[in-house]
Write a structure and sequence with these properties.
101 residues; alpha+beta; 4-stranded antiparallel beta sheet; 39% helix
């Protein structure tokens, strides 16, 4: 099934279900703050596993105690699609287990 870009209204409606996430320049973005660098690194590894499972990858940035994600769907010209929201929801499910805020 082909992936299609979401409308601005669809993006806004779906963002309401993902506190902390935003749409910034045609990308979904979120930054998590964790208690330690090790916890942040562990979260990155778990996010990488989810991305492999979904075969959909974000730009992932590891800071001292932060993890930042930015994702869109390259195959539709860099627009936001359902795939991006699937990844965001999976990451949200992981984050509390790592102490992310």
């Amino acid at each position: 099934m082909p992936v299609a870009p979401l409308s601005q209204k669809e993006i806004e409606d779906r963002l309401a279900e993902l506190p902390g996430w935003s749409a910034d320049a045609d990308r979904l973005t979120r930054t998590y703050r964790l208690g330690t660098h090790f916890a942040a690194t562990a979260l990155v590894v778990h996010i990488a596993q989810v991305q492999e499972e979904l075969d959909h990858h974000s730009d992932l940035t590891l800071g001292y105690n932060t993890v930042a994600l930015a994702v869109n769907t390259h195959s539709v010209g860099g627009a936001i699609t359902d795939l991006d929201f699937q990844l965001a929801h999976r990451v949200e499910d992981l984050a509390p287990g790592h102490g992310a805020t």
